[in-house]
Please model this.
Amino acid sequence: MCGIIGYTGPKDALSIALEGLRRLEYRGYDSAGIAATGPTGIDVWKKSGKLVNLEAELEASDRGAATPTAAIGHTRWATHGVPSDDNAHPHTSQDGRISLVHNGIIENFSQLRSELTNTGVEFNSQTDTEVAAHLLGLEYAKDGDLTAAMRRLCQRLEGAFTFLAVAADQPEVIVGARRNSPLVAGVADGEYFLASDVAAFISHTSEAVELGQDQIVTISPEGIALHDLDGAAVDGKPYSVDWDINAAEKDGYDTFMMKEIHQQPTAVADTLRGRIDQHGHIALDEVRLSEQEFRDINKVFIIACGTSYHAGLVTKYALEHWTRIPCEVELASEFRYRDPVLDRSTLVVAISQSGETMDTLMAVRHARTQNARILSISNTVGSSIPRESDAVVYTRAGIEVAVASTKAFLTQAAACYVVALHIAQRRGVMYSDEVAAVVESLKAMPDKIESVVGNGESIRNLAQHIAAHQRVLFIGRHVGYPVALEGALKLKELAYIHAEGFAAGELKHGPISLIESGTPVVALVPSPAGRSVLHDKMISNMQEVKARGAQLIAIAEEGDDVTASHADHTVYVPQAPTLLAPILTAIPLQYLAVEYAGALGHDIDQPRNLAKSVTVE
Ligand code: M6R
Model:
């Protein structure tokens, strides 16, 4: 939610900031702006709409009188104030000496705004951020120390924020601050970066420094310094980023989403790689929980949002079946407000691709206050949620740029299967040969995923055929139900139409009245083998909607010779154990959303009103 980049060093800071914004645009695209400093002071360019508008503006201007020595940039997902040029960041202090960009929400901004207005400060925007720009300007005017001014600013603010600021009379210096929002530093020879994520600077350096909560960071070509809010020097945590620049490119695909769909076989293989040793012992990445603590778990809560929540719902079926521990799955945004019953024997599993989703982070913190154990599943090393967890499993999916998650869902489910097996093993509730059998099935999944990914053409034709409809329903039973929810979410966010997922058995209790002649209904059909009762029930539910005029699209297992005669179109996926099937059946629905939205001419990677990483509550 908003991307920020700062650069100081010998190269053209303006171009580097612009390049960083291009890589961060997936975090928000309501407006973009840059402030660059040089011998003549600060130049600011900002424009509503996507980054191309800012690029055109820069093209048309003389890009500042001199080559800038430092620059800060921002790409916005609007919270306070409509997307407009005035509300675009950077914002500048009343005296014009300070410019600042911000990611997050300043919760006490209206009180601070009234205070400032009463002292004669004039505001040019509706944003909460402008309050910080004016306050920082006033603090800076006291002693000309930008780092100390930032510290004093942060002490006055409530909420979540990452700031980057530059001052006209210190053209090589950038000061940043971090509370509850992401910020990482990039370090190269005589040049330094600050950004929301490493994608912004990965083409320049893979050496990064993780910043902690409530820290102030100052960069200049001379070096990097970190302080806490009391002014004491602190150490950052250095690490090397292990993916290359190509990870942030489309690699010949039309969209990042198509690239990421095609990466799924490798991504899932990477999630599973090295987790299971030759003795069948399943290992997690970072575990600060003892064997005994795992054995003591008597309840599991999974908390997550959006697609990650759907991966959590899939996990519930596997976790309860394999571990026999009761498991509840909750939307993170609801969790802490209903006073859940937790204690030290409760395991809270937080699933978050970005590791920064504010709703999930706040739910984790609430669970921690109740003494629950926290295990997180994340794709982002060193992000806030893993840092605040007792154990972590990284999904190793590689950067996901498209706003609509694809490989996140599959890899999260795969990682959760590993966690469930780990718990089952620790508690001794599964025989080792049972664990080994599931592990073998899991290891076979990447090849099966590959074969579904390779079958995109059949969906392409199908999607174009049904794209005239303004409503699409998805139905499923058992693990097919969360997949139905995920399919509907994908279609909603990309195609902007009414799409809804239902438990197939629930349709007759109300939603079936939505069906009109020709309404497309996508049915996730369970395997006919083993759980044939479920399969039979699903066929009945399909007949119920068919009888009311629905156009039925079935996602069925290869070898299912019953389903096709009940559906208008059938897409087959390879056979897999029921609990693992979601990481196959979700893929046709990803394609469906891409093709459907593509036929409508929508932006696939950056759907309207959304942002990749949601760092506000
Ligand atoms: O980074 P997270 O996994 O915490 O993100 C949670 C949701 O915002 C995310 O899954 C969102 O629903 C997807 N972009 C939808 O495709």
